[in-house]
Amino acid sequence: MAVTLVNPGGLPEIDAYRQVSIATGSKLVSVAGQVAWDADGVTVGEGDLAAQVEQCYLNIGTALAEVGASFDDVVKLTVYVVDWTPDKMSPFLEGVTRAASKLGVVPVPPGTLLGVAALAAPDHLVEVEATAVID
């Protein structure tokens, strides 16, 4: 594994993810923003933030597997959530937890969550992109 996740002293310790990742691999993998589509391009969990977050993470796992990587190799996630408000944190974390359980990843790597006005398709509530490093 080319990635070590760390919670540095002096920063808050967050159960769901780590504040820093250290990558030692030699190949950089960038996964385009993934939305809640299944393999046929049908939206999963229309109107359900938790279900869509879960599907986005699972899609990233699928993309990574195709190039010989896994979530263990992810150094950074960027998450875009439509009309973000703090009350959406609970369903967001529910989706992350379900996906992490299925993917066998706890905690997840560092990430940034951004509220956006809209995504490319009106039924998409969330989009997640990933950067990974592999040997």
From TrEMBL:
It holds the Pfam family Ribonuc_L-PSP. SUPFAM superfamilies: YjgF-like. CDD domains: YjgF_YER057c_UK114_family. InterPro entries: RutC-like_sf (IPR035959), YjgF/YER057c/UK114 (IPR006175). It comes from the Bacteria. This is Enamine deaminase RidA. It comes from Streptosporangium carneum. The lineage of its organism: Bacteria, Bacillati, Actinomycetota, Actinomycetes, Streptosporangiales.
